[in-house]
Structures are given as C-alpha cells and as structure tokens.
Design brief:
The chain is α+β, with helices and mostly antiparallel strands and about 500 residues long. It is built from twelve helices and ten strands. The longest helix has about 70 residues.
C-alpha cells in the first residue's frame, strides 16, 4: 500500500477518537473565551485611563510652556490633550462601575482648567504677563493638578481591580480547560501510541536511511554524476531520493557561482577602499597664524558624495574647496573626486574661483539629469586676509566675528542641471574672524518630528565657540547634527572652518 493511503487510514482512525473529546473541550474553551473577553475589556479601560492621564500631563506641559515662553506652539499639545481627555471620559462614563470615579476625575480636571490653565493662557494671549504671574503665583495650579492626579489614580485603581477580577476568572477557566483537555487526550493515548509505532515504521526509518545517504553524498565533486540511491520501499521516498540527488547537483553548481560572486565582490571592495583613500583630504599646516579644520560624516556606507580640501596653492594663497555631489555611494564618490581635483588644478593655475567653476562645468559636460553638484570655492591670501570666493548653488557660508555676522550667498547656480555663469566676490577676514563652509546635510538634517536643523542652529553653535579650537568647533557641529537626528543622517554632512588666530 502506498504511504499516502496508509496515512489517510491512520488519520481517519485518529479523527474518530478525537471527535468524542471535542465536545467537552469546546465547552471549556467557550468558557475561557468568555472570561478572556472580560479581560480584554479591562485592558481597554486601562488603556483609556492611561490616555486620559497622559492627555492631562500634555495639557499641563503645554499650558506651562505657553506661560513661560508665550510660544503658541505649546498650545497644540494642550488643545489636543483636552480633546483626548474629553473623548476618553465619554467612553469610560459608559461603564456603570466607573461612572462615579469618572465624574470625580472630570470635575477635578474642570477645576484645574478653570482655576489655572484657562486664566493663564488667556492672560498670556492678551499680553498681560502680570496677570499671568498673579494666577500662577503660589501653589494653586500645583494643588489643583495634584487633586486631578489623585482622582485619576482612583479611577486607575478601580480599573486595575476589575482587570484582576477578570484575570482570576480567566485563570479558573483555563484550569477547567486544562483538566478537560487532559482527560480527553488521555482517551486517545492508545491511538497515538499505535500511530507512533506506525509512523516510525512507515516514515522515520525510511527517512533515517535517506538521511544517511544524504550525509554520505558528495556535494561538489562529480556534481553531474548521480549517486547510488538507497533502496526504499515507499514510492514517495524513492521519488524524494531522486529529488534530493537533483538538488545536490544544483547546489554544487551554485557553489561554483557563489565563489565567483565572492571574488567579484572582493574586487569591488578593494576598489571602494581605494576610492575612499583618494577622497581623504590632507589638511596642510597654514602659514601666518592661520588655522583650519574639517570633517565629514557619510550618510550611507563608506563613500560620501561630499568632499573638501584646504591646501596651499603655488602662489602662496590657501585654497578652500567644498563640493556636494547629488546622491551617495561609489558613483557619487568618483564624481566628487574628479570635481575636487579639477577645482584644485584651476586654483593652482591662478584662476579666480568663479572662472574655476565655469572651467569645471565645461570639462565635466553633461553627466545626466541625476549628476549635479554644488560647490564653494575660495582662495585666501594669508598676508592680508583677502578671500576671493564663488558659490555654485551651495548653502551660504558664514563669516563670524565678534562684531558682525555675514553670509556668503551663491554667486551662480548649481553645476550640472542648467548652463550658468559664476562670478567671484571678495571679502576680508580679520584676525579672530571665522569662515565656516558646510553642506546641506547639516542644515537640512531632520529629527524624528521632521524638524530641520536649520542655519540658525548652526550659526548659534558657531557663535558659542568662544576660544575653542577650529577642530573643536567642527566636531561640535557634526556631533550636534548627529544628536539632532538621533544618529540617522539622510545626507552626507561636511563642515570646514578656517580663520586666523587673534593675536
């Protein structure tokens, strides 16, 4: 008899015995499910109480924040919290056992609103800070909110007690189900024992023979030569042995393909590491008390689409180059390296930064709709602090001094999308001034709430630099960006800071 027919006959016998026990198990299961529904209701009640409690804390935080800052944004959690609390109370009040506690908590919440939140918000909205301070003076607001917290705690306690009662009922129902199931399953123990003997004879022994053959079969050597198959009485297992042998031959061929793929991957990895090494800039020691520091954080992998350079030029000037290529990865890295080298070569020939960018745009030609970049290029004369720069659609660089703050706006469009021209402008850096160049990965970094880092935050970080070294300033800017985004950069971030020591 075929294995399929044997198993069908065995299964039919087991089903007859199982049907006898199904009625008792079904009744016990229904009782357990009913208790489970009670527990779920208790869990929903507890969740709603937690939401109401959190909503009042949000209201308290929003009202207090609005009182202190006058910023209308703080009213958003306050208003949202009122809506959530109102809906939560309405749902909880439908439960007879909780109506008294809900009414007490709702009364306490209304007292806090009328006694503190509404007067303070109205006073601040009217610009009457004195009246707001009078309302918030003393501990009236705290006392009312503590009373509200106490009422919410009473409500939470009642819900917890209800959940515990439901849990005890569920435990009893589970115990009954366990006993009924145990007795029912004991009735078919002989049937299972017989089934185990038959399964061992019909299935396990043939599987053991097949497994021994699989362990001894060769996977790689002579992959196209079929192995000697074991003798199996069941036609199903004989067919399985043939399928295993075919799989063995496929695995052997796939191993060969995997080895080739691994070798190709290693070759690509070596190329990426070489490209990364080429993109690493060399920060040279600058003359005449000038100092510079720079760093970048790649958004993905080890290759960034940003690159920078601060280097001495043959005519004694210092070249400052920051390039931001669209995209990430190896393709963007290759284009970044090429752009940096072309810009450096143009500055070394004595060209003005604007002319350098035009030259690079012509040399690169059309790289496709996805290949474009922004750049900030400057040549600094260390003798007199003269800075000649061009900005190709790059975020405005900052010049920060004790008595002024200046932005170096773009002098032309970004490179690659549309034809354009780039002019060269000139500023003077005095001792103590700082020139900060950065990529949009800094100011466009977003946190979990989709809020951007923004240029104002970056300017504030730079303004707080005090007597820090330029290396400390660069590290702080990048660390604050990583902290703002919680370590999840979506674009490469680069910062370059240059200045002359104030003697």
């Amino acid at each position: 008899m075929a294995l399929r027919n044997r198993l069908l006959l065995l299964l039919a016998s087991l089903m007859v015995g199982t049907a006898i026990c199904a009625g008792g198990v079904a009744l016990a299961t229904q009782a357990r499910d009913a208790q489970r529904e009670h527990e779920i209701v208790g869990e929903l009640q507890a969740e709603r109480v937690d939401r109401v409690t959190s909503a009042f804390f949000d209201q308290q935080t929003g009202a207090r924040g609005y009182e202190l800052s006058g910023n209308p944004l703080f009213l958003e959690p306050y208003r949202l919290g009122r809506t959530v609390a109102r809906k939560g109370f309405a749902r909880l009040a439908k439960i007879a056992e909780l109506r008294r506690a809900v009414a007490d908590a709702r009364t306490a919440g209304s007292a806090w609103h009328q006694g503190y939140a509404v007067p303070v918000i109205d006073a601040v909205a009217a610009g009457d800070r004195t009246r707001a301070e009078i309302v918030s003076a003393g501990d009236t607001g705290k006392r009312l909110f503590d009373a509200l917290r106490g009422r919410l705690a009473v409500l939470d306690t009642q819900v917890i007690e209800g959940r515990e009662t439901a849990q005890r009922g569920l435990d009893r129902a589970r115990s009954v189900l366990f006993v009924v199931s145990t007795l029912s399953f004991a009735a078919i123990a002989l049937g299972l024992g017989f089934a185990a003997v038959m399964i061992r004879r019909w299935i396990l022994r043939p599987l053991a023979d097949l497994g021994a053959w699989v362990r001894e079969a060769r996977i790689v050597d002579d992959a196209d030569t079929p192995e000697r198959l074991p003798h199996l009485r069941s036609p199903e297992f004989s067919d399985l042995a043939l399928d295993v042998d075919a799989m063995r031959r496929r695995i052997a061929r796939q191993v060969v393909d995997a080895v080739g793929a691994h070798e190709a991957l290693m070759q690509n990895a070596e190329a990426l590491l070489a490209l990364r090494s080429e993109l690493e800039p060399s920060m040279q020691v600058l003359p005449g008390g000038w100092v510079a520091a720079a760093d970048l954080r790649a958004a993905e992998g080890i290759i960034a689409g940003d690159c920078y350079e601060v280097a001495q030029l043959p005519d004694g000037r210092t070249g400052v180059i920051v390039v931001d290529i669209s995209g990430h990865g190896a393709v963007a890295g290759v284009l970044a390296l090429r752009c940096r080298e072309l810009i450096h070569a143009g500055l070394a020939r004595g060209l003005d930064p604007g002319a350098v960018i035009e030259t690079v745009a012509l040399q690169l030609g059309s790289q496709g709709a996805e290949a474009f970049f922004t750049a900030f290029v400057a040549a600094v004369d260390p003798a007199n602090g003269e800075v000649r720069f061009a900005n190709a659609g790059h975020p405005p660089a900052f010049v920060l001094a004790a008595d002024r703050s200046e932005e170096l706006q773009p002098t032309g469009p970004l490179v690659g999308l549309i034809p354009g021209s780039w002019s060269t402008r000139e500023i003077t850096l005095r001792p103590g001034d700082l020139l900060c160049v950065y990529t949009d990965g800094i100011i466009e970094a977003r946190n979990r709430d989709r809020e951007q880092m923004g240029s104002d935050r970056l300017r504030t970080l730079l303004a707080r630099s005090g007597h820090d070294t330029v290396a400390d300033i660069v590290e702080r800017c990048l660390d604050e960006t990583m902290r703002f985004t919680e370590g999840r950069l979506h674009d490469d971030a680069t910062v370059v800071v240059l200045g002359q020591v104030d003697s």
